[in-house]
Amino acid sequence: MIGAPRSIVGTVLGLALRAHSSSAFAFAPVASRRMASSSTTSSLDMARNRGLERREEGATPMPGGMTLYVKPAEDGKSVGDCPFAHFVRMVLAEKGLEYDLVPSAPETKPQWLLDDYGGKMPALRHRRECYVDSEVIAQYLDFFFQEPELSVGGEATEKATAAIEGFFPAMAKFAKHSPNGDEEDKEKQAVLEAKLQTLDDFLGEGERTGPYLVGDGEAFSLLDCSMAPKLYAMDVCLKEIKGNAVDMGTYPKVRQYMDALFARPSFQSTVEYGPETVVWGWSSYH
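and the corresponding structure tokens:
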């Protein structure tokens, strides 16, 4: 077990499914996430009745009985470098929830995961239910296991979400491109640097008293859990794959933000895969 359900009301998963975004995670405020409707119940039923047992209505999920299936490293057995799986693990660590961690190669994935969820990972199975989208998993965990609460709603979250809009796609396109230094590579680098500048400007606005993304920076949120593994992947790729093409000293606020995230215990305890595995994972695109 790694340190730290009965039926689920239709609220959380319907809203989490509705919250999908191709570029950034926009998390619903707590109050709105608790408003049940027939449409959200329908979304929940569609997600939870695919190959797993149906539960009795009206109960609340409890800690325990969690298994997280994730991308493996090169050896097929140890933890891989997937930033979405790392995001989920940070949420679990922040909440002190225990779980079994199962790196799964295509040939070792459970048959039910292949048959009913297309083999998608990260996949969190909580006793008889399973969720296969990192954003949905994070919403699920934060709704039912609220200590500490990681969802921060309102205008502050909207602004923070806008500040990171498009960052990861830009970073991924630049890291994956080969050869380094050609005209296309320079164009992709320019797009990434524009995103870094937007984030740096945002982190320098107002009177911040804390190091994190939302509002005054005091509250550590799901957005921070999402960004930490992505920034770590960028940090490693810039050094080990892209020849330090981007000078992070140009973005001091982003660098400070990265340092704060990387020092977080929930990050430190879930980054055992290390730079070598990041290099292996991202170099496969070259």
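(Above: one complete record from the training split.) The beta strands are 66-70, 100-103, 123-126, 129-131.
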